[in-house]
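Narrative of accomplishments. A recurring question from our advisory board has been how the design workflow behaves on a single, concrete structure rather than in aggregate. To address it, we present the structure tokens for one chain from the evaluation set, followed by the sequence designed for it. No filtering or post-editing was applied between the two.
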């Protein structure tokens, strides 16, 4: 009888270990999925930050160019420059045309 009891105990322990291992495997898969989603969101936010910095630096360069040009021009040229500056501020779709006119 001792061998049957020992065998049943070993069987029960084995089933419990298999169940616990399965549970830990499922938790590891969920942890991996959570880490993937977290990294993806983090990378998307970093990409948005990089695009924002790019746009800000580009616009800073464009506005610095326009302001720098307007400071070194005569009064009649400043009036023309003010017209182009207001057009640049109001109509971003044609900013490249304004830059080519001033270049």
């Amino acid at each position: 009888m001792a061998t049957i009891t020992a065998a049943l105990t070993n069987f029960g322990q084995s089933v419990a270990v298999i169940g616990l291992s399965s549970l830990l495997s499922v938790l590891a898969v969920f942890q991996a999925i959570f880490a993937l989603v977290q990294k993806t969101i983090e990378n998307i936010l970093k990409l948005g930050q990089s695009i924002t910095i790019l746009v800000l630096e580009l616009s800073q360069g464009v506005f610095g160019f326009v302001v720098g040009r307007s400071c070194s021009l005569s009064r009649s040229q400043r009036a023309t420059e003010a017209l182009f500056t207001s057009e640049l501020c109001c109509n971003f779709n044609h900013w490249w045309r304004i830059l080519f006119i001033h270049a």
